Amino acid sequence: MTDLALQILDDGSFDLEVCCNDLATTDGLESAVAISLFTNARAPDDFALPLGADRGGCWMDSYPDIEGDEMGSLLWLLSREKQTDETRQRAERYARNALQWLLDDRVASAVSIVASYPSIGLMALAIEITDARGSRRSFAFALDRAGSLCKCPPLWPFDDNAQQPGGVTNSLTVIGE
Q: Is the model's pLDDT at 155 over the cut of 50?
């Protein structure tokens, strides 16, 4: 699966990567995972929104290849939430929903997601994707209290009892397999 390569800028936004005066490409899942997680999905009508927020959504949802298909995640709704176990579990659920298409389209056979709080005001997402051939790829993202993407802490092992920075023990959510 060849995609345009994205790079994370210092301000937490994404931009297309340029190499040798041309747009860079990647055969990995980096761009697909980043777009799936960090495009704001439209919040359902029954969701409580952060103060001053609208329902969000992506313009591409107006032109789906498959009727009713939507892209993005609801991670943006967690931007002002307290650091609780319930919020961490919601982050895992939102990430799982955003990446479900990888399994539905048989790009991946399994997706593992771990959310944690490595420090006050920071949520980390560690994701491991097993592709259809059995190869595993790991991704790590960190979100600050405002919901902005930050440079990541190092990846940690995918282990049910892995001890994260700050002494937080995480659950492991696996979909697929």
A: no
pLDDT tens per residue across span 101-149 = 999 989 999 999 999 998 888 899 999 999 889 999 888 888 887 777 7
Q: What is the pLDDT of residues 33-79, one digit of tens each?
A: 888 898 888 888 888 777 777 887 777 767 767 776 778 898 988 88
Q: How far apart are CA 90 and CA 158, in angstroms?
A: 19
* 172 exposure class (CB count in 10 Å sphere: 0-12, 13-18, 19+): middle
164, 58 Cβ separation under 8 angstroms: no
Listed as own residue / partner, the contacts of 5-13 with beta carbons closer than 8 Å and 24 or more positions apart are 5/30, 5/31, 6/30, 6/31, 6/34, 6/35, 8/34, 8/149, 8/151, 10/151, 11/148, 12/144, 12/148, 12/149, 12/150, 13/149
Residues 6+ apart with CB under 8 A from 119: 165, 166
> What is the pTM for the complete model shown?
0.74
Q: Which of 38, 31, 1, 9 is nearest to 131 (CA)?
A: 1
- Count other C-beta atoms under 10 Å from residue 141's C-beta: 22
